[in-house]
Design brief:
The chain is an alpha+beta fold. The chain contains 12 helices and 4 strands, in the order ααααααααααββαββα. A hairpin with a 2-residue loop joins strand 3 and strand 4.
């Protein structure tokens, strides 16, 4: 769990990470304010049982309750604000960072499969991080902190009850680790199904004209249906893996309260705990694990959150092309390829090609499908870098141009066109 929390915080930039740290610090205060109900309850019970009800006792109980309630309200307000800002700003910033990073990746990265992957990461994954991750991480941290603070407070009332609380908390975290392992088994398939469904639907929508023209609804619609079915099964598997374990965690929290209550009664009956402590411990036995029970519901999501972070980081880790060249205005636009070779992974497409295209001339590159026509034009525009040889424009290697100054020399009509819903005005 700690590893997943660290991964998320490392993923955030410094400003947003500090907001989450501040929210965690406020969570500690929230736990302390919440724990004030225990001494307030003890003072009230002790005053009633020992006939010490007076103005001093009433004011003390009232003061503790007001401080606890007002303190929690104020702390929660600022804590939730920091959580919300940190979550949304992180998702927004990472979307922009991914977009900027994609500008300088080799065009070979942008195939149909990766398009669905990129779309899934920048939509589904980032949405999960901004909405679910923020809430889940803070709930897990705050629940754990609150339980630990109240557990420590138990030692001040009775060391034995404090030790029982620690043992119950340890059992909960052991089961929680088991829960995360179960979820981890299905998390990869869930994320993969998300990506596959987005990619297939995106391809279907983009190719709807061809699908209608050639009446291939059956085959194309079949792929969409298959992807949606896979996504449904992955979601069901994730829920099936998580729900029983979350239920077990919930049961442990409830049974822990029962154990503390039972131990309290045993200590009272054998005369080792007074009545005031006994009633206080009975009242607080279930309150100890209330926050941890709520946190347990969200721990199952941490593995999914970790996968979302990994997916976004994988894109950001793809090496960019070196585009730190000079801003060049060439004297002419003559294009020259000198002994150029290029391969897609292990499949060589261009083999030792030398070519001259003079400025203000028209050249048609003709050949069979897969012969390298598009590849040659992509190498000229430096969508990829050549494996061997060189490409020059105006006598200067395209690698020596800055990205923006190189693009100023080209106009494109791509094989696949995307229309933006925007204005050219």
């Amino acid at each position: 769990m700690l590893e997943l929390l660290k991964k998320f915080f490392d993923f955030c930039n410094k400003e947003n990470r500090n907001k989450f740290y501040a929210a965690v610090a406020l969570g500690v205060l929230d736990a302390i304010f919440g724990a004030m109900k225990i001494p307030a309850a003890y003072v009230a019970i002790d005053a009633v049982l020992n006939n010490k009800v007076n103005d001093k006792a009433l004011l003390l109980v009232l003061g503790l309750m007001i401080l606890s309630t007002v303190g929690k309200m104020v702390v929660n307000r600022f804590s939730q604000m920091l959580q919300t800002e940190g979550g949304y700003n992180t998702a927004c910033g990472k979307r922009i960072e991914i977009g900027e990073h994609l500008r300088y990746l080799p065009m070979g990265y942008f195939n149909d499969a990766s398009l669905g992957h990129i779309t899934s990461v920048t939509t589904n994954s980032m949405e999960q991080l901004s909405d679910i991750a923020t809430r889940a991480i803070i709930m897990v941290l705050q629940g754990s902190i609150t339980t630990i603070v109240i557990g420590i407070g138990m030692f001040f009332f009775d060391v034995r009850i404090g030790l029982i609380s620690v043992i119950c908390i340890a059992v909960f975290f052991i089961v929680n680790k088991w829960t995360n392992r179960n979820v981890a088994r299905v998390a990869d398939e869930k994320i993969s199904a998300d990506k596959d469904m987005v990619g297939v639907i995106l391809e279907y929508v983009q190719g709807i004209a061809e699908i209608r023209n050639y009446n291939i609804f059956a085959s194309s619609g079949g792929r969409v249906k298959k992807a949606v079915e896979r996504k449904k099964k992955a979601d069901i598997s994730a829920e099936t893996a998580a729900i029983p374990m979350v239920g077990l965690q919930n049961l442990i929290c409830k049974l822990s309260g029962v154990v503390i209550a039972g131990a309290t009664l045993v200590f009272y009956l054998n005369g080792t705990m007074n009545l005031s402590y006994t009633i206080t411990m009975l009242l607080c036995s279930f309150m100890v694990f209330e926050a941890l029970d709520a946190a347990g519901i969200y721990t199952a999501l941490l593995r999914i959150i970790g996968k979302c972070v990994d997916l976004a980081q994988d894109i950001l880790n793809v090496p960019q092309m070196n585009t730190t060249g000079e801003s060049v205005i060439p004297e002419n636009r003559d294009i020259h390829l000198e002994h150029v070779s290029f391969a897609y992974e292990n499949r060589k497409i261009i083999d030792d090609v030398t070519l001259d295209i003079k400025e203000k001339t028209t050249t048609a590159i003709v050949g069979p499908s897969g012969g390298g026509k598009t590849t040659i034009t992509s190498l000229i525009a430096r969508f990829w870098d050549v494996d061997e040889g060189s490409v020059t424009i105006g006598g200067k290697d395209v690698k020596d141009y800055s990205f923006d100054s190189l693009m100023e020399n080209f106009s494109f009509v791509f094989q696949r066109v995307y229309l933006f819903e925007d204005t050219i005005a």
